[in-house]
Fold:
Amino acid sequence: MKTDATRTVYRLISILVLLMGPVPGTPRGVGSGGIGNTMNDSTISGPARKHSPAPFVLRLSEYGTEKVAAILDSTKSVQMRSGYVNLKPGENIGSHNTGEHEELLIILEGTGTADIGGFGRKNIAKGMLVYIPPHNQHDISCSGTSRLEYIYVVAPVR
Structure:
């Protein structure tokens, strides 16, 4: 079952990379983020590059039953942040606003609701994506009888 969820995450991350396009200022065909990416220390330059994070691979099963666990932070990524969320039935993440950041949720398991200010409450379930634009108050709740598990990806607005 985790295998299907893991495959879904990899597919969705590949889609995200394709949608985001190349890193600004890189030569054509470099920094596209695809398989076999040739990005190196000289590929990214300018104010967005704070350090050179190393590539890594991880198993989502390493995160266990923690409510929230960081995947990408300032030590592993230039600007993108990501984490794994595991909510029990009836539990919510808490209303918050990501300010100058946009957020994408990748629902791995379970059912719940996404209450996004100005857009109303939407039902969410395994295999769905939720996009939250910048400056939107939002909360995610587990409304099912089993855990709601998702990955969040937060990136600054250009």
Observations:
- Strands lie at 68-72, 81-87, 96-97, 101-109, 111-116, 120-125, 129-132, 137-142, 148-156.
- Residues 63 and 100 are 28 Å apart (CA to CA).
- Helices lie at 2-20.
